[in-house]
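Human: Not sure, check this?
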Amino acid sequence: MASRILTFVSCTLYLFLLINFTIIGFASFIIGSVGVGLFVPKFITYQAYENSTCFIVDIEHDTCQDSCYYIMWSVEYYITNITSSQYTFSTITQTYDTADVITDIISVYKVRSNHTCYYDKTQVLRVQWNEPSFPTPYLIMMTVGYSLTGIYLILIAIFYYRY
């Protein structure tokens, strides 16, 4: 009788661990796959931007409809392609919540001054002040998800060959 109870407990524990490992393995595979799906487009966007020096030609600022404020800089910057190099004229537009922020930003980005900007190599008229961020959270998500999937597969192989 005791051996039957012990066998039942060990089989139940084995089945419980197998089900839990399977749920964790599939969930980690899904997390890794979602990480890849989010990482790839963000990384392509990150790679598409090149830095340049923007010369501010003009500044306009006004209020939006929903109690926000925007600034529009007219800028000129130099781009270098494989085939040619040229000056490009474009605008950078950003919105802010308060008018105080606008005065601070305008005091930094003044007319007839140079600042580092980033333009899209595929659409050279798309320009912004800040460098696009590297998709680190999605890289971590991808790495952790697929690492846990690998651990799951190793544990399942150990259980399979051992029992």
Observations:
- The first strand starts at residue 49 and ends at 63.
- Helices lie at 2-48, 99-108, 136-162.
